[in-house]
Amino acid sequence: MNNSMIIGQYVPGHSLIHRLDPRTKILIIFFFVITVFFANSVWSYAILTAFAIGTALATRVPLSFVAKGLKPVWFLIIFTFLLHLFVSRQGDILFTVLGFPFYEESLIQGATLSLRFFLLILFTSLLTLTTSPIEITDAIESLLHPLKRIKFPVHELALMMSISLRFIPTLMQEAEKISKAQASRGVDFRTGSIKDRMSAIIPLLIPLFVSAFKRAEELAMAMEARGYQGGEGRTKIRELVFYKKDYSAFLFFLLVIAATIGTRM
Amino acid sequence: MELTFKDVNYIYSPGTPFEYRALENFSMHVPSGSFAAVIGHTGSGKSTLIQHINGLLQPTEGTVQVGGFVIEAGKKNKHLRDLREKTGIVFQYPEHQLFEETVEKDIAFGPKNFGVEEAEIEQRVADALEAVQLSEEMKDKSPFDLSGGQMRRVAIAGVLAMKPEVLVLDEPTAGLDPRGQKEMMEMFYRLHEQEGLTTVLVTHSMEDALTYADSVVIMNEGKKFMEGEPLEVFKQKEQLRDVQLDVPEVLAFLEKVENRLGVAIDYRKQSLAELAKDLTSELGRGDGHE
């Protein structure tokens, strides 16, 4: 059995970025996304791009992995660029190829929009690359904590998230096991008409549901047996603490924002 | 049907950081109608091995031959369906694969998939129920209303109803109480004899391998570590210890007795109780001579 299955695209590591508090990372990303929309000059874009790429390098995640995460959006980035280039007609004609005019303004707009896209996606993907799903859940719980005042079930939500994350690999293994058992009994998942293939799913889904319900029941029982009563007064095994490196990261990021705003036109 | 593995290599997720070689130059031969046991620790490649027998996995290198079916690395195999009909695999915790509304329908699921006729299926369901020692009345119950042991028997019946010629058992007694384990193994052995099946048993139990198997293969880290007749293999204590396996209790006991009392007792697959009887008669005879 291959047990090294990963959820999402988390790549374990010990870089500075890996060791930052997940809340730090989420907050910085949140404000980075906003800042990107403020940039409007060559310099401001250059600063943000340098910051994003610098951070990506600092994660020490192999660049091939980073690129793999971006794969599904390359199309969108390039499409946005081309759409602007061919459809919108603003500014002066820059040059003409085979009788088709290229406008200066459209070129610039296409380029900046694509760059924004690229920056947003690159930077947000760094979160999932360097932070385990459990850490993200913890951070979300902690960041949403103030919402408790308005009776928003923050703890329950976080618990549900971590339980579902925990059981994704388990269920996938289970599904693989059952599909193999049914394939051995002559089920063909790969060929046949759509109708045949739909009905081939039933012998897979029913046992999967049965075991998921059984697992849920056992888990609930085990939690109760160990005195679980919900979030009230519950302490944590992984306490989130801001360290010096987190403050330094915030400070550095503030400088980046200031520089971006300062170089706006 | 005989079963042959020839220089089989299997690699999971080749060309990725998660590449993992589960089988390495593995060869094995199980003659038609014989009973082979495969022993090894978790991660030694046993599960990968058995999935090659009916083509769930296809070798990265090498060939697997089951009767007239040949599965070769890198080739398309069109006869997987026929092969799967002839090889029944009882996976670990087979009760997890039950899904139909009634026991009868679940047992009939395999044969139906392979296009067996209705009348024949009915007969097979009855035979399979009998083979796993469940009563005829069971067949209209929901499999989910049964006890764990009964569910497992229904699932096994579902495999037997395909009338396989090769039966592969992946730790079929896991999670049963000692008595249930013994009954289950005796049931499989009876089927093996009656139907002339070629049986491959994957197990942790050295005792079961010693009692039922004609040949034993010991696996370690994807490679064949030892092979031979159970008694011969299990005599090699030191080698077994190298892969953290113990000599079967009976043999360990026998050796101690022989060393302590200086008697020689022939081992013919006796149980511990039978062995004790042999021992008393042997000792009694010794007394008589003195």
From TrEMBL, chain A:
Transmembrane segments: 26-53, 73-103, 115-134, 247-263
Family: Belongs to the energy-coupling factor EcfT family.
InterPro entries for the chain: ABC/ECF_trnsptr_transmembrane, EcfT
Membrane-protein topology: Multi-pass membrane protein
Keywords, alphabetical: Cell membrane, Membrane, Transmembrane, Transmembrane helix, Transport
Major subcellular site: membrane
Keyword Transmembrane carried by entry: yes
Subunit structure: Forms a stable energy-coupling factor (ECF) transporter complex composed of 2 membrane-embedded substrate-binding proteins (S component), 2 ATP-binding proteins (A component) and 2 transmembrane proteins (T component).
Gene: ecfT
Gene Ontology MF, one: transmembrane transporter activity
Upper classification of the organism: Bacteria, Bacillati, Bacillota, Bacilli, Bacillales
Key word Transferase present: no
HAMAP family (alphabetical): EcfT (MF_01461)
GO cellular component terms, semicolon-separated: plasma membrane
Compartments, as annotated in UniProt: Cell membrane
General function of this protein: Transmembrane (T) component of an energy-coupling factor (ECF) ABC-transporter complex. Unlike classic ABC transporters this ECF transporter provides the energy necessary to transport a number of different substrates.
Name of the featured protein: Energy-coupling factor transporter transmembrane protein EcfT
Natural source organism: Salimicrobium halophilum
UniProtKB/TrEMBL annotation, chain B:
GO cellular component: ATP-binding cassette (ABC) transporter complex
Subcellular location, principal: membrane
Keyword Translocase part of the UniProt annotation: yes
Enzyme Commission code: 7.-.-.-
SUPFAM superfamilies noted in UniProt: P-loop containing nucleoside triphosphate hydrolases
InterPro entries: AAA+_ATPase, ABC_transporter-like_ATP-bd, ABC_transporter-like_CS, ABC_transpr_CbiO/EcfA_su, ECF_ABC_transporter_ATP-bd, EcfA2, P-loop_NTPase
GO function terms (MF aspect): ATP binding; ATP hydrolysis activity; ATPase-coupled transmembrane transporter activity; cobalt ion transmembrane transporter activity
Signal peptide as annotated in the record: none
This protein's name: Energy-coupling factor transporter ATP-binding protein EcfA2
